[in-house]
Amino acid sequence: MEYIDLAHRLLHDEAFMASCNGGTFLRMQASGPELQHLFSWDDLNYSLSCNRLTNDRLRLSTERDHDLVNRRAFRPVRDRFGRSTDQLVIGELHRLMDEGVTAVLEAVNELAPPVEKFTERMGGTLGARSSANAYVSFGHTSGFGRHNDDHDVIVIQIDGRKKWTFFESPHGHRHARVTETSGPEELKPGETITVSRGDILFIPKGTWHDVISIGERSLHLTISLVYPTVSDFIAWGMQQDRFGIPFTDIRPGDGSFQALVNDSLQFMTALISDENLNRFLRFYRSGHANARVKADFPALNQATGEAMYRRISIDAIPLDRSAGTVKIYALGRTHLLTDEEYAVLCRLPHFGGMRGHELATGEADWNAMSQRLRSLMDKGLVGKDVECRTRSVAPRDVAS
């Protein structure tokens, strides 16, 4: 599958991995066939035409306006139950795009299976939460003005061209970060790149940039890579001792807080350690899914030996053991499993999958194994690696 090849290529590219690990800017190239099977204009049209998209899913913007253009594209309506919602007017969307508006289709990985596979592979391997947005433009303007993103971004130019302007830092760096200045108006334009079909950019978190259409059609994906932050770690640490120092009142008194300062410093010193950072990271990863559970009608949660199974959570933490049972933390809550179910869960990968017959030692063991898999699927901890069926599409023309 070509889209897996693209993820594989990136994850095995030394320059790309060095940029990911070091947080440095990178530009590289991918081939046309890889992009064709990842996402296309046909996929975009299908997503817009065959899904009920509201304004929280499809956003429109220009550098100076987003309210008016969104109100033009979406008509307030009521559904058949009388509930207020909005309806995308495709004809008005076409006119707005022709006028130069930029459109963003959010979480396109939930609408296009190849993009979903790509984000699962990238996020699962890099240990990040990952999703994808599709950006579309035809005009001559900036879609959002100068801005930065609070996560790393992989940009994949699917078709057309677009101009990316980065800004010089006060320290002479080619790509200024928000850590160097919070005021983008203070920065001078620096490196300008015109990306073309097949270009891939890795843009580290906090990099100031502006993206400008150049009067040509343009379709690109942005793949987000979201890692936990020190703020997340501190919040988690506070919760671990929420009735201790974090629970202490700060009361007005004689103006001296030295005792509280000393206690707080002791608390933070004990909290910030390699052991606690690794413990937090495992809890964080256990609290999030790397994939969605896919519908499998009419089979439902019936287990078969030929089906592929995968763990939905990135990790699962055992909290307590008693006779024959294990209480675990996964997907942000606790679950009670049998020892056998927990053993199966630990064997399953969170990307790819294993066939049912690989989990069973023989035909005699399959009945028990199928019951364990059924129980884990009922709890939402395991899913079948179901290939989503999409419309049949003729080969696409990807000429420049």
Describe the secondary-structure layout.
Elements: H1 2-11, H2 14-22, E1 26-29, H3 32-38, H4 41-49, E2 58-61, H5 67-73, E3 74-78, E4 84-88, H6 90-99, E5 102-105, H7 113-126, E6 129-137, E7 152-160, E8 162-167, E9 189-195, E10 199-203, E11 209-212, E12 218-226, H8 230-240, H9 258-271, H10 274-286, E13 308-311, E14 317-322, E15 325-330, E16 333-338, H11 339-347, E17 354-355, H12 356-359, H13 363-378, E18 382-384
Antiparallel strand pairs: 1-10, 2-5, 3-4, 5-6, 6-12, 7-10, 7-12, 8-9, 8-11, 13-17, 13-18, 14-15, 15-16
Main β-sheet, spatial strand arrangement? 1-10-7-12-6-5-2
Main sheet specs:
7 strands, antiparallel
Low-confidence stretches: 389-400
As a percent range, the share of strand residues is 15-25%
Approximate shape: globular
Q: What is the terminal separation in angstroms?
A: 23 Å
CATH architecture of the largest domain: Sandwich
Task: Give the CATH topology of the largest domain.
Answer: Jelly Rolls
Derived structural class = alpha+beta
The radius of gyration is 25 Å
Please report the total strand number as a whole number. 18
Fraction of residues in helix: 25-40%
Q: What CATH first level of the largest domain would be assigned? A: Mainly Beta
CATH superfamily assignment of the largest domain? Cupin
- Total count of domains: 2
Provide mean pLDDT, rounded.
91
Total of helices: 13
